[in-house]
Amino acid sequence: MIELGNVRFRWGSDAPLVLDIQKLNVNVGERVFLEGPSGSGKTTLLNILGGVALPEVGIVQVNGTDLTRLKSRARDAFRADHIGIIFQMFNLIPYLSPLENVKLACRFSRRRHALAASKSSNTEEEALRLLMRMQLNEAAIMHSPAFELSIGQQQRVAAARSLIGSPELIIADEPTSALDHDVRRVFIKLLFDEIADTGATLVFISHDPSLADQFDRRIKLTDINKVH
Amino acid sequence: MTSIGSIVSLSLRSLLNRRLTAALTVFGVAVSVMLILGVEKVRHDAKHSFTNTISGTDLIVGARSGSVQLLLYSVFRIGNATNNISWNSYRTIAGRKDVKWAIPISLGDSHKGFRVMGTSEGYFRHYRYGQKRMLRFEAGRPFDDVFDTVLGAEVAEELGYKLDQKIVIDHGLGKGRFSTHKDKPFRVTGILERTGTPVDRTVHVSLDGITAIHIDWKGGARVPGMAIDADATRKMDLTPRSITAFMVGLHSRLGAFRVLRDINEYRGEPLLAILPGVALQELWRLMSTAEAALRAVSILVVIGGLLGMLTMLLTSLNERRREMAILRGVGARPQHVGAMFVVEAISITGAGCGIGLLFFYVGMASLQPVIEYHLGLFMPIALPTFREWLILGMVMGAAATTGLIPASMAYRRSLADGMTVRN
Ligand SMILES: Nc1ncnc2c1ncn2[C@@H]1O[C@H](COP(=O)(O)OP(=O)(O)OP(=O)(O)O)[C@@H](O)[C@H]1O
Ligand SMILES: [Mg+2]
Question: Are residues B254 and B167 in the same domain?
């Protein structure tokens, strides 16, 4: 699913090198735990995998497409179609309801819109189904603005958004760091359950090693990144 | 739904979320739009109504004063004549071979705030306004008897007068009820069609009528012990001794300058003849500075409104970094993120223009009678004209351009930040 080769990246032409990765492979359907200390470049790697940032050299193959060969427009479209992203916190657009936040992922991708609609009767139904799977079933929550939700609820909405329209790759950037320990495990379990159905690949970024045992594979960014 | 559709609906939702600041900004834009529409309307309508009031008159003659002043009081009923001219001078000039027609005008009295004008019956035949249009009667006919009167459309409408009604003329221009010519009432014999000129606000009587009501007056007061009733007056010689001014039509416009010179060098008394078009030009020149200043102020107010909007959008830029990162995360392009700000600018200004237009009409409806009464300026309330749409279009264009500033900043930030949100 992911193949990085000889990737070097810096944020500006005279900024320091952040990433220098010889090789990183992730197989289809694999659930990978990517850890590393703060500032080691985890979020930067997310930007590269999502096609938002381009490395100065190297190839970035995602789902068989080399992102470095795409124009920026095509990379944005690729991300919209094939990648679901969950951030650390404040994942939701505050003035939209949870339901609308979930559907947002279908707005920039015809493919995910179509897939979501084919899974349930329409995108709204599919969004509701996913929220349900994330154990968000109180009707009151669905339509009130997102900022009224607890952080744990917000993260589950974000997970539903990353899953809608069955993207092949889900990248979660420290999605549980704002949650307490028990809720973390539940969150990860819910995520796993849904991914098991779609067969999506998961890259889970975190610096909490205690979560690593639930994953298929554990990668330390400091091991593969020559910068640190 | 297309991405652009999503961006538009997201922008609107976002604005709704900040409805208080958004509403204040819209209000600011609305006030500035109302102002610029108002100023432009007054400017345009004033010019239009001045230009439209008189056409087909070659010369206007009055006592020597400023040409603009003569034009204003004789045609527009603004201000007063400092001096009258003698009937003899009028007769002499009216009798010239190159003069086709001459219409005497005698001003100075009023009726319930409307000016009364004594004139000859030739006025209804020769006076032209707009594109050489004749005065036409809505009802009745020109005056015939000494105590007949013809009302302008506005006078009849506002006071609810009908044909054959008797009206009493007030002495002088004040609204004082105490000195009226109530012993000699006038009968309405005609009501003119609306012209959109000061004619609408004029009460027309014959020159004889003017003489008649003043026959037992001297200066500003009734001569004590002298009371001549209407019927007795009719039998007297009512030839006026003086008039305020007169309008002249020539056989050939080519001769205008010669007649003009002759009148200005007239030996009997100091007279002034003007070409209406030239005097109007002079009036425009006098007004042009004020006009430019007014226009500049209203443009500045619009710029102020747009700056208010710019401030609001720039302020929101920082608060919305997270929002921009999320949008990027779901596949929005940096262009989409930038476009949100242009859409917001256009929506705010669009709403501002709409509400401003509403304010403008409300303002017009309430101020129109006052302006008409005090300035004699007729400002029709009509659907927005092409000029007004053009102004609104320009405001919208300026708004979209203004929106490009936060848009390009958001675009660049969105490129630089990617999906990292660094607070
Ligand atoms: N958008 C950006 N523009 C410029 N520099 C950036 C940007 N994002 C990250 N960096 C820099 O890149 C380096 C790696 O940051 P990154 O956010 O990838 O670390 P991280 O591993 O995600 O850390 P954390 O665990 O704290 O989230 C840091 O030095 C950071 O300052
Ligand atoms: Mg990070």
Answer: yes
Q: Given CB atoms, is B332 within the 8 Å cutoff of chain A? A: yes
- CB neighbour list of residue B100: distance below 8 Å, 6 or more residues apart: B249, B250, B251
Residues that place a CB less than 5 A from ion ligand 2 = A 42-43
Residue that finishes a domain, picked among B245, B274, B303:
B274
pLDDT digits (tens, 9 = 90+) for A3-52: 888 899 988 888 898 889 888 999 998 999 999 888 888 889 989 998 88
Q: How far apart are CA B96 and CA B255, in angstroms?
A: 12
Question: Total structural domains in chain A?
Answer: 1
Contact A69, A5 (CB under 8 A): no
Closest by Cβ to A77, choosing from B17, B331, B421? B331
CB pair distance less than 8 Å for B322 and A90? yes
**Residue A92 contacts B, CB cutoff 8 Å:** yes
Interchain pair A107, B418: CB under 8 A: no
Which residues, listed in sequence order, are joined to residue A7 by a DSSP beta bridge?
Answer: A21
Name the residue range of residue A180's domain: 30-52+71-220
Task: Flag whether B282 is in a domain.
Answer: no
The answer to whether residue B383 is domain-embedded is yes
pLDDT, one tens digit per residue, over B277-314 is 899 889 888 888 888 898 899 899 999 999 999 999 99
- Identify the band that residue B175 occupies on the pLDDT scale cut at 50, 70 and 90: low
**Alpha carbons B204 and B140: distance in angstroms, whole number:** 13
What letters, b where the CB count within 10 A reaches 16 and e where it falls short, cover B257-278? eebbeebeebeeeebbbbbbee
Q: Looking at the complex, does the CB of residue B393 fall below 8 Å from at least one CB of chain A?
A: no
Alpha carbon distance B374, B371 (integer Å)? 5
pTM for the structure as a whole:
0.77
Residue B365 within any structural domain of the chain: yes
CA-based nearest residue in chain B for residue A42? B420
User: Is the CB of A120 within 6 Å of ligand 1?
Assistant: no
Domain, as residue range, for B133:
59-274
Facing A108 at nearest CB: one of B14, B332, B419: B332
Q: Cα-flanking dihedrals φ and ψ of residue B180, to 5°?
A: -125, 165
- Structural domain tally of chain B? 2
- Alpha carbon distance B84, B77 (integer Å): 15
Assembly ipTM: 0.91
